[in-house]
Every structure is written in structure tokens, then in C-alpha cells.
Amino acid sequence: MDRVTSRTIEITLGNIQDYKCGYTEYVRQRLERIETQQAAYENQQKQIADIEKFIERFRYKATKAKQVQSRIKLLDKMDKVEVDTLDNSSISFRFPPAPHSGRVVIEGSNLTLGYGKLEVLKNVDFVLERGGKIAFVGRNGEGKSTFVKSIVGEIEPLQGEIRTGHQVIIGYYAQNQALLLDPEKTVFQIIDEIAVGDIRPKIRSILGSFLFSTEDTEKKVKVLSGGEKSRLALAKLLLSPVNLLILDEPTNHLDMASKDVLKNALLQYEGSMILVSHDRDFLQGLTEKVIEFKDGGINTYIGDVYDFLEKRKLGTLQELQSRHGVKVEGADEGRPSENKDSYALRKQQEAETRKIRNRIHKIEQEIEELGKKLRAIEEKMATPEAHTAEISSGSLYADYAKIQTKWRSSKHVGRN
């Protein structure tokens, strides 16, 4: 999102906020805005409490009647500072402990995989040992999902054999997993039909952790959104302890916060894992080995996804879709030459970075000055007895709102 967008519109709790920046900067600016709002809100609440105290104290004193009425009018005219609320609801879960399995979890030798006469992968050898965590990457159509389907038994190898290790229990999340849910069943029924033992009394609690309210649990699958179906499919996967997780593009239809929570759960998962994904940031830190599917075979890289990208001289996994991102025969230690698309993208990013830094530098002083003015007004709000005239006239709050708007605008320009 940071690479392809320069504007972020937040729709939450019935309101729209427009940020002239990418997602990561939006997150930072939003927290900063809320902190500023909170400080102004607390100061204003203190002013309101002091004014109400004065009114209550002198309400029936004739000599103070004019002042009391003035403060009552001030309260009526005062624009109340509101604080945006953070939506902290998100998926909250962790996978059950992984049962013990044999040392070798999955082993395939001399595999040829495909459909009829179409061979997608040929003469492939593969071993996954207990506790191993591997990422499958590569261009679309190179065989990642085909290989996964052969591991779980959905398709038979055209040649060779795939062996599942001793006591291996597979939990599989397919790209179309949400579409495999029975559309006529309710959310509750989907989970109820597989929940057994001690987990049964916890069904509604589990669904609640996946953001399904009591009312939502009675909805049929066919009326759910894509994100809701994905969350339900993940909840279904959670119920059974497994020691091999195979997730094929699990972040499709998940929002940013939900992806983060899923990643945190995977970081705590102790079993073996195969992840198929084009999401570089999601994969980071989750695996210790990357297998690239290319030209009917597989290449293994030790390290996580960023180690792989560095070795392949790529900026993103999406660049694998380009036919230029291929190895050069005889390249030093198997390293590929830098492709033109990657080089051009890197140069463009460097130029944009320099441009952004220059723009930020030019307005840093203005931002600092506006910040000083805001803090000065906040200090006045905190000591109303010393600034009665400004508070009574309402000019203090008007100035604060005006400067705050200009400060936000400067921040947006500097960061955009």
C-alpha cells in the first residue's frame, strides 16, 4: 500500500478522515492527531469544570449575575473538542499447541505434478522436518498451489511419491477456503459441527474473538462479506490441534489489523508450517527458508523473505511476476544479475525519497513554530484564571482550532 498509494481515507464509526499520505504515515499521523485531541480535550474539560463551578457558586448572588450569565453563554457557544476513538477490535487468537510428530513431516522424491498432460513441476525433491517453517514464493502459475494440493492429497502426483510423516496432522487453509464453506449454514453451525469436547462451551467466545457478535453468529454464510468468510474459515482451522499448518494466501480479504494479529499468532505457533504468499511484510520473520517455484522446478534459499529478495536483487515479491527476474547462467554463486525493472524501480524510489526529504526540510521550521503556538495556548487553557478575557470571548479556542488546522495541513504537506 505504501508503494502504490499516496492518500489514505479512513472510514470509522460513521466518520471520514482524509490523510494525504500512504498507510504507514497515516497510522503515525492518526495517533499523533488523537494525542493532540486528547490533550486539548482534557484542557477544555478542566475549563468547563471551572466555569461550571463558578456558575454554581455565584448563581444566586446578585452582584455576580452578569458574570454568571456571561459564563453560561460561553458554555453554550463553546465548540466541544472531540477525541477520535481507536477501533481496537481485531482478531485475537493463538493456535492450539502442536501435537508431537515424527522428525520428517513431509517428504517427496522425484515428483512430477500437474493436470493430465500438463506438467507444472518436474523431478522435484522436497523435505520438511519437524518445526520447519517454509515460504513458497514465485510467479502465478509456477506450481505453488499445485504442490500444496498434492501435499494435502487433493491431487495425485503424475510421477514420484509424497510421504506424510509419523503422527502428522495437517491444518490446511486454501486460497478458496472461504468459498468452500456451506453457504446455507449459519456462522454458528459451521463451527458447531466440528467443535468437540471442552471446546463446545467456548464456541461463542471463539467466534467473538473473530469479531462475530451474537447476532452475527445466526447469519448464513452466503450473506457474509469476503473478510467475514475468511475470518470464519480461520476460526474453523483454529479448533483442531495440528502440527503442520499449510496456509495458501491467508491474508486475502483480511484488513491490516487482522493481518497483524494473524502474523502474531503464527509467530507463536510451534509446529511445522508452509506459507504461500505474495505479501513480503506478512512473511517477514515467519520462516527460515524460502522456496522459489520457477521454470518447472524449485530453488531453495536459506533465511527469511528479505534474505531471499536480497539474494535475488528484488525489491518486492511482485517483481517475480516479471519475466526479467530470472537467473543468469554462470552467475557468481548462483546469484542473478540485477534486472532492469528492479534497477529502475530502485532509482525512482531513491529520487522520490530525496524529494520528500527536501520538502520536509523546508517546512520543518513552520511546523515547529506552529507547535510552539499550540503548546502556548494549551498552557493558557490550563490556567484560566490568568487568561479570563481570552477565555470569556472564546478567542482562545478559536485560535487553537485555527492553528491546529494549519499545523495538520503543514504536517500533511511535509510528509506527502
β-strand amount: 15-25%
Low-confidence stretches: 323-340
Give the CATH H-level superfamily of the largest domain: P-loop containing nucleotide triphosphate hydrolases
Helix/strand order, N-terminal first: EEHHEEEHEEHHHEHEHEEHHHH
Key descriptive features of the protein:
single chain, 416 residues, alpha/beta, Rossmann fold, 12 helices, 11 strands, elongated
Structural notes for this entry:
With 416 residues, this protein is α/β, with parallel strands linked by helices. The chain has two domains: 8-88 and 363-415, no CATH class; 104-344, P-loop containing nucleotide triphosphate hydrolases (Rossmann fold). The chain is 43% helix and 17% strand. Strands 7-8-9-5-10-11 form a six-stranded mixed sheet, with helices on both faces. It has a three-stranded antiparallel sheet with strand order 4-3-6, covered by helices on one side. Strands 1-2 form a two-stranded antiparallel sheet. Helix 7 (256-268) links the parallel strand 8 and strand 9. Helix 1 (23-58) packs antiparallel against helix 2 and helix 10 (340-382) runs antiparallel to helix 12. The longest helix is centred in the last third of the chain and has 43 residues, at 340-382.
Please sum up the structure shown.
The chain is an alpha/beta fold and 416 residues long. It is built from twelve helices and eleven strands.
What layout of secondary structure does this protein have?
Layout: E1 8-12, E2 15-19, H1 23-58, H2 65-77, E3 104-115, E4 118-129, E5 133-138, H3 144-151, E6 159-164, E7 170-173, H4 187-192, H5 203-209, H6 226-238, E8 244-248, H7 256-268, E9 272-276, H8 280-283, E10 289-294, E11 297-302, H9 305-311, H10 340-382, H11 388-393, H12 395-415
Parallel strand pairs: 5-9, 5-10, 7-8, 8-9
Antiparallel strand pairs: 1-2, 3-4, 3-6, 10-11
